[in-house]
Amino acid sequence: MYRLTVIKRFAAAHRLVNYQGQCARLHGHTWTIEVSVGGEKLDSCGMLIDFRALKELVGQIVGELDHSYLNDLHPFSEPNFNPTAENLARYIYYKLKSLLPSDLTMGEVRVWESPDVCASYREDIRP
Predict the structure, then answer these.
(1) Which of 3, 37, 62, 117 registers the highest number of CB atoms within 10 A of its CB?
(2) What is the CATH number of domain 2-121?
(3) Per residue in 46-75, pLDDT tens?
């Protein structure tokens, strides 16, 4: 199995609803998104997918989030669905999964709020 990873960054503001602490106030981050995809077959050039093509797919999703107030965007505008790093990772995971060519599989999405902290999401295969 081959695995590729790309990284994109975007800036956005958010606040955590029903949270006791500083993050309940409006604040922003320069978010770093790290996305991994996998597959078994390489193309005639020896690539799983061109890095540029994968960056473009991730860029479509990041473009919707960049320079926004995340709380105003669906699904984060829904009650009880805060725009946390965990929820962002899950959201990006499923958005990208729907855009990938059928011969590729999603690996993991990591969302970094700062250089020191991140959350990740992936589907675990259970027996």
Answers:
(1) 37
(2) 3.30.479.10
(3) 999 999 999 999 999 999 999 999 999 999
